[in-house]
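User: I'm writing a tutorial on reading structure tokens. Could you give me a worked example: one chain, its sequence, then its tokens, then a sentence or two explaining what the tokens reveal?
Assistant: Sure. Here is the example chain.
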Amino acid sequence: MRLEYALTVCDPRSLMVADIQASTSRSSGLSKADIMTALGYVQRQEHAGLALLYAKYLKHDNEISYALDALWQYSQTKHASSNIKGRAIMRQLVALALFDYCRTPEDKGQQCPACKGRKEVRDRKAEEQLYEICSKVVELTKPCKRCHGTGLKALPKSNVVTIVQKMMPKANERTIYRTWIPIYNELVQWCYTQEEEASRSYSRMVRM
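And here are its predicted structure tokens:
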């Protein structure tokens, strides 16, 4: 059972209840106690990653707060600034990066307009080729190119420009794209890296 599914076994408030129930019924025989033990292990080893997952899939306020703090601490180890405006910008970028990471296709208004959150679109070219071979209509899909298979609409980078220019009105967009947007992308990627670390830790535990 994947970690994001395991989270919901112990918390019925999930946004993915139907999917989780279906997944649980086909699980590999893990009991609720097994899952809770594994989650306890992950929390000790990868607290930030697990907090991010709780924030993303269960929207727990306390875990959102912890994830925000963890992301802020990371930002300060990499991009600390003694400048008050710089720190203020970083705090807003951290909040925006966490919001970006925590979005799911189930969240209102966050679905990719091309695939409607399904992460895939019909592959009509492949369908036509297959039809020519077997004379049978078969619906085929392929990853959505617009959202790269995430099911999410892209957040405009202009959000970062707006944040920076509010604090530094003289900053031009070229400087922001060169300096601040790479930092923002790094913050979002850090969240996904922590998620991957937590997922690997959970997988090792449930295989034991």
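What the tokens reveal: Strands lie at 120-122, 141-143. Residues 173-207 form the longest helix (35 residues).
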